[in-house]
Design a protein that fits this description.
87 residues, elongated
Length: 87
């Protein structure tokens, strides 16, 4: 399995975690008043993973749609050329 590693200066890590938690709505207390069992660091890591997976899903879905459209267009053009004769 491949590994992706981000290297950043030690003082930058809390800033990164703070930014991700603020942007994506980390809550230290859950709706019922219970403490959140997911730490800020765990939350930030989960968001990074989910975001990267989302990029791949979006990219692959877009490519699949473009390929399907190209295939459908080619099939339609071939069908029209073979089936319709205008004299």
């Amino acid at each position: 399995m491949a590994t992706i590693t981000f290297n950043l200066p030690d003082p930058a890590l809390p800033r990164l975690v703070d930014a991700i938690c603020a942007k994506f709505g980390y809550r230290s207390t859950l709706e019922g008043g219970a403490p959140n069992p997911e730490t800020r660091g765990q939350f930030a890591l989960r968001i990074v993973r989910e975001t990267m997976k989302g990029w791949v899903k979006e990219y692959e879905a877009t490519n699949a749609a473009q390929n399907a459209a190209s295939s459908a267009r080619a099939a339609a053009e071939a069908s029209v050329d073979a089936d319709i004769a205008i004299t």
